[in-house]
Design brief:
This protein is α/β, with parallel strands linked by helices. The chain contains 11 helices and 8 strands. It has an 8-stranded parallel barrel with strand order 1-2-3-4-5-6-7-8, surrounded by 6 helices. The structure holds phosphoenolpyruvate (PEP).
Length: 256
Amino acid sequence: MTPDIRPLVAGNWKMNGTRASLDQIKAIAEGVKTDLSEKVETLICPPATLLYVATALCDDSPLAIGAQDCHQAQSGAHTGEISADMIADCFGTYVIVGHSERRTDNAETDHLVRAKAEAAYEAGLTAIICIGETADERKGGQTLDILKRQIAGSVPDSANSENTVIAYEPVWAIGTGLTPTVADIAEAHAFMRDDITKRFGPAGHTMRLLYGGSVKPSNAAELMAIANVDGALIGGASLKAEDFLSIFGAYKTLLD
Ligand code: PEP
């Protein structure tokens, strides 16, 4: 945690979820209607097919809804893509960009991720910019160099603490059940804080830095307590309302 930063607990549903899964969003939207939401923000990023219906379900809930990617252009001949404006038109307020699965499956570069984040800003969305090292890069002792390079390349100069969240997601920890040690996460987040503060000045002190990679109810309290970890980006454990709400609930004791 970082003093004076309101944490964000965010779920990335990836390519999971049909209309039947809207029951889980309804349950999460109800479950976060507690005093804790004044102190902790919550977000679910379902597949684009559910975006519009999901935001309608959250009308009277503090739960925010976002998308998992956007195109860098505002509109045009880009078959199969969705723009940041379209996400905003569906009342989405966040978009994830540069997730490692997109960097790998779609060969997305830092340069492209930066352009997507800029498109998100133009549309009034907050971009969650994902960065993180692979297993080989970690073994080679390159973790902090990779984070530095990805922040420099993927985070636009116009980033601030309102329009940007940075998610540190070690690629080898995503969906594997493996997590770095508390000391390793603390080192990475302290390094990122220092790096963005040097570049963005005071905005760097208040920009949220999420940890993602096998966050679950059983480890959430320990991981969320680490200095400079301002919330979580959760894949698998965000699909079930009970698990997502339990991770959100971990903040009850942390913020007491
Ligand atoms: C993710 O995909 O962003 C993620 C962190 O997945 P998981 O929580 O399943 O490791």
